[in-house]
Amino acid sequence: MSELTLRPWQAQALQKAESWLVDNGNRHFLINAAPGAGKTICASVIAKQMFKRDVIDRVIVIAPRSEVVKQWGKDFQFVTGKHMTKVTASDEDVTDYGNDLCATWHAIEGLSEPFQFVCNNYRTLVICDEHHHAAVEAAWGEQAGSAFENAKYTLILTGTPVRSDGKDTVWLAYDDEGNIIDLPDDASFTLTYGEAVDRGYCRPITFHRHEGNFTVTLPDGDGISVSSKVGAEDATKYSDVPGLKRALDFFKLAVTPKYETDGITPDPESYLGSMAAWGIDKLEDLRETVPTAGGLVIAPTISIAEYIAELLEVMTDEKPLVVHNNSANPEGRIAAFRNNTDKKWLVSVAMISEGVDIPRLRVLFYVPHAKTELAFRQSMGRVVRTLGPDDYSRAYVVMPSLEILEEYARKVEQEMSPQARKEKEVVFKVCPICETQNPRNAKSCSECGHEFPQRKTNYRSCPNCEGLNPKSASSCQHCGQKFSTEFEVSLKEALRVGAIVRGMDIDEEDVQESEEMAEDFREFVLKSGDENLLRIMRDLPAEALTRLTQFAEARKRSKES
User: Fold this and answer.
1) Is the pTM of this model over 0.90?
2) Backbone dihedral angles phi then psi of residue 533, each to the nearest 5 degrees
3) Closest alpha carbon to 343 in 305, 387, 293
4) What is the pLDDT of residues 331-385, one digit of tens each?
5) Residues 532-555, buried b or exposed e (16+ Cβ, 10 A)?
6) Measured between alpha carbons, how far is 316 from 34 in angstroms, rounded to an integer?
7) d(C-alpha 218, C-alpha 225), whole Å
8) What is residue 220's predicted lDDT score, i.e. its pLDDT?
9) Which domains are seen in the chain, by residue range?
10) pLDDT by residue (tens digit) across 110-133?
């Protein structure tokens, strides 16, 4: 389309892909570009050119989520002028649709043969979005391998060219560190995150490593110290607790829901509360220059997501929007947050970590379930997308000071130029009504008279000089005194979240199995309405579920024999 102006990298990728696929007769081409750089538009332009050169009849797009599928349909039609039909898992056939198709990875599982028919009977270009899903040994990989085996061309898109397990995927091989191997230079185009920042396609990012030291108090009054750097200390005398050193995990303690004395109200003085204070303060600061700026929480479980949402509400007097797989109409909730710029926080469990585009997101509160480089980079991609050439703001991430997460953060920082890593002081704020820039201390807009709302700041008193400081401050702005990052967790609290497994000699595989079934189990109990079961589940660690299952199976076998 004449009104479409390609970014320089998109034009380069088009030229390279056309040469490799069409001119040289190869089948697979990889575009590895940072999140937000414009991969969807680039791929659509490549498809348009291949239609123009009469080398393809059909295009099939595979994307990770239905929200992304919808966006693909819009972008593809904008670029090519061709309608793209969305395919769902409930469709029985796609062979007679007669046009271009877009489906989720999940949808292709039951439609392998119909997709195979299309590829066998038409010159088909398959565009594979977020290709890391297609591990050879996984269900989606097997389905993709058979469904698209005879596609004439494959265009592979990714913003995170790593697999944490190093397993091969359909069309690509990986080494033990998860990096792509055996791919000729002519068969790919790469735009790194650092290059995207320098060219203004992505925002630079600042990481806040949130430190904390925990003391787990035992019934005898003794305490076990746990930190992200050292792990569990002085645990040898508690050898009667199986697997204590392994069980006392810093991250599990960091995400432990902690309540005030009423047992209902989330505690702002907890570790999660101190993380939230930093994120809240940063977002409020950003909204003075970018009034539409939003924050995203990625939580490890539904229960912790809902706890953090309650915590944010206590600390801000505003109710965040919560979205997860069990939410009613999750896509509608995401769209509502995208469009309602008055809504400041979106709390999720993984759903927003991949593919979903909400450019107004600026702050990420990151306490994930999967601590892999792939998941980390996918999540970072949610807050680095720019609003355009005039978007001068940065992205910010607050995360636990966990060694593995810090390693990933260092890699991202090293990709940026020294200039991009430096924060520039912003001396103005923007009117949300007329977008006029005003001095940071202005009480009203000089252009339209809009009165700026008084910023709510939570303060803490310095124990050394008694000076007041923002709650999120790590040291006193008056005397330099470093504030304590000590947090206490009772044995009962640690047991409740499975940070300690008392009296259970179970291995790591059992622990992971329990954590996977815990949410469904708790949801089932909740729906039952049984108050006794609900009370038990509140204090039951996730690890106990495996042991309970083992008991039930043993009892069943005993009765059968």
Assistant:
1) no
2) -65, -40
3) 293
4) 888 888 988 989 999 999 876 656 677 889 999 999 987 778 878 888 888 898 8
5) eeeeebeebbbbbbbbeeeeeeee
6) 33
7) 11
8) 66
9) 8-191 (3.40.50.10810), 205-210+258-424 (3.40.50.300), 504-561 (no CATH)
10) 787 888 888 889 999 999 887 666
